[in-house]
Amino acid sequence: METFKAYRVFNEDGKVAGRVVDATLAELAAGEVAFRTAYASVNYKDALAATGTGGKIIRRYPLIAGIDAAGTVVSSTDPRFKAGDEVLCTSYDFGVGHDGGYSQMCRVPADWVVRLPAGLTLFEAAALGVAGYTAGLAMELLELNGMAPANGKVLVNGATGGVATLAIDMLARLGYHVVAMTGKAAEHEFLKKLGAAEVLPRQKPEPGGRPLEKELWAAAFDSVGGEQLAWLTRTMQRNGLIASFGNAGGIEFSTTVLPFILRGVRLIGVDSGFTPMPLRRKVWGRLATDLKPRFLNDIARVISLDDLSAYFGRMLGAEIRGRAVVRMS
Ligand SMILES: NC(=O)c1ccc[n+]([C@@H]2O[C@H](COP(=O)([O-])OP(=O)(O)OC[C@H]3O[C@@H](n4cnc5c(N)ncnc54)[C@H](OP(=O)(O)O)[C@@H]3O)[C@@H](O)[C@H]2O)c1
Fold first, then answer.
1. Are 239 and 264 within 8 A, CB to CB?
2. Measured between alpha carbons, how far is 242 from 248 in angstroms, rounded to an integer?
3. Tens digits of per-residue pLDDT, 182-209?
4. pTM above 0.70, yes or no
5. Which residue in 8, 126, 258, 267 has the most C-beta neighbors within 10 A?
6. Residue 202 CB–ligand 1 contact under 6 Å
């Protein structure tokens, strides 16, 4: 039986860590579709999961990590897919309760598989990955709630991160005035290249503060959570829209009801994990067309399975920018 390389996470005496191992298809969690992985990517959740940081994300050990992957179907017992189809898989239990994408072969339930949309290569699908899907889903949900370029500025915080860099590119492409907020002084020019009209240094808002402050943003893409999110609620314009998808700066925040009842601010939760499949396919279709980032090659860099452990540490230290794509072949 063919053996292949995979990055498996172990919990040994309470210490969670991953390493590259040899694996076989028979060892992988069950599923109808087996595909040969071309690329996977690194998301913040992967870094948390593979290092055991911030609570239990992986639900059974040992487990192959990686919450997204793109590749070519080798076999399928489900009639929706056949050998040779190019596909991608993200979300659900992939890489958290079911063996994930950091593996040269993957085996998953057919219900989790998305056919690669025309207009994307396997590399581009992985460079987008969960991060791009989350940015695209946030765009879709905010547009459904009336977001439009004419309404005013859009704030994107944690701006050099994976979701944020892709969101900036997508927003700028559609004509939005994007204000990027970052903790990295050296990356202002990079963010402008992606399409940010303005770049602000990361704020450290005081907890509390006045319940309503100067109206600044028509919409916001929040990677950070915590006090940053509280500050956003206080500084949104009338009918402002906040996409809340991240917790890089904390999970708790406190605000008042005043932004909601006096300014009509809407706080819109974005969960990439369990989107119904019709909406998921729609967003992937948009990622291949009107939302397709123009600077994906500047945002993404290629790493190998052997680089993963070190990369996770740098990601948790907010030392990276953009996206890392893991070449699997
Ligand atoms: N809801 C969902 O379905 C979903 C899907 C994907 C991601 N997420 C979440 O979205 C967030 C971003 O994910 P990602 O993959 O883009 O991560 P990432 O690439 O690591 O980006 C996070 C960025 O946040 C900023 N940041 C980090 N620590 C911070 C802190 N303590 N305070 C303020 N800012 C900080 C940094 O940007 P600067 O240095 O530029 O400020 C960092 O680059 C994560 O919390 C992730 O778990 C959620």
1. yes
2. 16
3. 999 999 999 999 999 999 999 877 766 7
4. yes
5. 126
6. yes
